[in-house]
Amino acid sequence: MKKIIISSFLFVFSLFGFLSTSADVQLEEKVLYVAGVAEYEAEPDSGEIILGVEVDSKQASEAQQKASERVKTLINQLISAGIKKTEIKTVSNSLNPVRDYNVKPYRIISYTAIQKIRISIEESERLNLLSKTIDLVASNPINNIESVNYYASSELVKEVRRKVLELAVQDAMKTGESILSSLGLKISEVLRINLNASNASSPSPYRVDDFAVKMNAMAAAPEQDYTELMPGKMKFTATANLALRYQ
What we know:
With 247 residues, the protein is α+β, with helices and mostly antiparallel strands. The chain has 2 domains: 113 residues, Translation Initiation Factor IF3, CATH 3.30.110; 106 residues, Alpha-Beta Plaits, CATH 3.30.70.2970. 41% of the residues lie in helices and 34% in strands. A 4-stranded antiparallel sheet has the order 3-4-2-5. The longest helix has 29 residues. The chain is elongated, with a radius of gyration of 33 Å. The two termini are 48 Å apart.
């Protein structure tokens, strides 16, 4: 009799455990996990050029004066071309002695003055002014051109991030609806949402070597237009992971 009672108890416990497990399985089976992916390309609305002059002279004051005069001339031309004074900033201004170490004691043989400026434009409709800057650089004794970079303003980044996240969610929902519809089911509730958007992959900067090629071409054929710059597009990506309850 004792063995029968124990067996019955074990049977009831096993049955309860089975029912509990089955309920969990049924509950879990009513949730569908889907992922959505989206990409969005946008043209940069801001850009900058960093350039300057490097002058070598036996007198420090003369080197500094010549560098300043060249930069001042360029700035005046930039302003006349439509670039605002507030868009032009000094990056660096240095004066360094050039020493001859082949003699003892070494002696200073000249001085090198370097002045650099940055032209920054944060209005998409005025980015073409960067091309005009290239023309002005080619016609001036500017011998230190570092780069041209295009990028997105903070306002554009916010706008595009919202858009690409919205597209990722739509992609996930369409996937969920398609799967459930094929089974004669439909979404009843969105249980969880996990969103992630990556930073924009900026277009490659305009390399310094490219400037040399461009300016040599302009010198060889000045009647042609070599100033068109192609900033490219920035790519934003996003993912959306959803947990969907269905019925």
